[in-house]
Amino acid sequence: MTGQPWRLENGGHIDRSCSLSFAFDGKIMEGHPGDTLASALLANGTHLVGRSFKYHRPRGIFSAGVEEPNALVELRTGNRQEPNSLATTTELFDGLEASSQNRWPNLRFDFSQANGALSRFLPAGFYYKTFMWPANLWLTYEHFIRKAAGMGIASRESDPDRYESRSAHCDVLVVGGGPAGLTAAMTAAEIGERVIVLEQAPHFGGWLRREKRTIDGSPAMDWVDAVSTRLSAMADVRVLTRTSAFGYYDHNMITAVERVQDHVPKSDPFLPRQRLWSIRAKRVVLATGAVEQPIVFPENDRPGVMLAGAARTYINEYGVLPGRMAVLQTNNDNAYRSAIDLLDAGARVTAVLDVRDHVDGHLPNQVRDRGVPILQGYGVVETKGYFAIRQVLARPLVGGPVRRYDCDLLCVSGGWAPQVHLHSQSGGKVVFDAEKGCFLPSEARQNCVSIGSAAGLFTLKDCLKGANGDDVPEQAIKPTWSLPNAPGRHGKCFVDFQDDVTAEDVALAHREGYVSVEHLKRYTTLGMGTDQGKTSNVTGLAIMAKLKGQNIPAVGTTKFRPPYTAVSMGAMAGRAVGHHFQPLRRSPMDNWHHDNGCKWVDAGLWRRPHFYTRPGEDVNSAALREGRTVRAGVGIVDVSTLGKIDIQGPDAAELLNRIYVNGWKKLAVGKARYGVMLREDGMAYDDGTTSRLSENH
């Protein structure tokens, strides 16, 4: 497989018997069914995939899921062109066309990279201070600001695809198809509940697909396949893969988007591209998992810097080696699984930098036994490289000499953050766990529960029922958000990769008084990108808390708002496009109005006559003439478009007496009367006519 030099000879959940051709920035490459665009790019040795928002710095693939802040690409061309698509979740298909964005004229030479040299003049909020004078030039400034802002380019042509919406009800809705979600779904199904299971990936398994784990002595994926097969065969269970739950609303309603045909090269005209689901459930089980968090250090954004869990995902799920010479930076034992998998895949791990002063767990000892040096109490102080990382500089956190390590991959792990977005959207509260260094779901306002990693339970044992995982004891994590700069080194420490928010930007917001969480977010744009800060929010809060001399709970959290992941405008609109967007509603007298020369006006949902013209009249003269005619003679008004309320019962007339200012008890059957409603202050509120059809109707 010379065309894919970084593809492993075996392993992964891909179909090696079939090759797929795709293009990135016009270059033809190869991949396999089961690949994502990101894994196929890495297999072909493409690590540079984009440019950052403000400074246009080179950026590479950072993660392997929906939390990806860097690898945003434009997919397809023409009327199907779609910007800001995640390479990490885009399924590869034959003929896929993708291009990098936010660069000109090309990815390797981006004219706007000059912004990096001017970064001292472009701090957080610079546009609030720079373009204030002279005031009459603001529209000119705005033109260029808007031209420079934004990430991708949307097509100006009409979308040719079809979108649908659908509603469903169930007893139990399970969001997430990992080990905890599958266990919950099977438990509910076995007691006769109507169950719907949503999984955003094409297949069930969650993080088990990314690990070499066992359940009851067999490969964990054997257990996943058995449970998912049983669920699919049950009559009262609906299984929806490629379906992302993105909103949690009142009355236990979850909205989700199903990607029906995003993964196929040629769409079926009888199927929608995407389907929007509105699901109402008696009980919601949130098994949404957790997202690995980075650690902030100088020059931490170079291509080749990757989350440790993502590195082993590319190895175990896609059969791709993300680097041949790796360094790891961690504060927990879980990252050592990545070191082991890298070694098993043939990579060289030159060092593991662990911020903890004493490391002696089961997994670290496995790595140590394979000859990998573990530097305790060490942290990265700088990285070298431009289009790809080439070297890591590290030193003890308490000070000391700097060590240099050549590498093409730096794996970072700062612990895990449960995905509490849907729980928060439902009105639920979150609490900060200082020992685990993350926010956990607490009090729920609706009938929902978080389980597994989404509840801060990170072991396989906590996710299973009636089965045994291969958990090993792990040493406690040491919550660490950022590492100190070495003396004389002043590299940028990025907190939010997508919006180029640095630790210094957070410090500037603190100095200028923007210490409220919501003010910090808006002043720096922290967490306001398409990733919604999945790998940056907690770190930003921790840095602000340290600057204020408070703990993280005292600083608070931002509001998690829908959508959890990006949703296309087409899915939101569904069938309500063109003539179906606002159907033309005609009254029974529509033809008469037209024949008498009326000019139409949209009134609510109806087309109603505005006025009737005669030769030489405009709207004002026509209105005066019509008014005089009604006052001197007679006029009619077409009220068939107004709403109608059917009131029945022995107290129907008394109800009207209490609503209107005039009486209704003496209104004869077959007669109608005009009524007026008043507000509490005596001003007219509404009016209408009422007809008596029978004594109590």
How would you describe this protein?
By secondary structure, this protein is α/β, with parallel strands linked by helices. It has five domains: 20-148, Ubiquitin-like (UB roll), CATH 3.10.20; 163-291 and 418-463, FAD/NAD(P)-binding domain, CATH 3.50.50; 294-414, FAD/NAD(P)-binding domain (3-Layer(bba) Sandwich); 584-632, no CATH class; 652-691, no CATH class. The protein has 18 helices and 34 strands. The strands form eleven sheets. Strands 8, 9, 12, 13, 14, 15 and 28 form a seven-stranded mixed beta sheet that branches. The protein has a five-stranded mixed beta sheet with strand order 2-1-7-5-6, covered by helices on one side. The model has no long low-confidence stretch (mean pLDDT 92).
Features:
single chain; 697 residues; alpha/beta; Ubiquitin-like (UB roll); FAD/NAD(P)-binding domain; 7-stranded mixed sheet; 5-stranded mixed sheet; 18 helices; 22% helix; 25% strand
As residue ranges, the low-confidence spans are: none
- Which shape, going by the Cα principal axes? globular
Largest sheet: 7 strands, mixed
**How many helices in DSSP terms?**
18
Q: How many beta-strand runs? A: 34
Number of domains: 5
Class by alpha and beta content? alpha/beta
Distance between the termini: 81 Å
CATH class of the largest domain: Alpha Beta
Multimeric status of the protein:
single chain
CATH fold category name of the largest domain: FAD/NAD(P)-binding domain
Measured by DSSP, the beta-strand proportion falls in 25-35%
Name of the CATH architecture of the largest domain: 3-Layer(bba) Sandwich
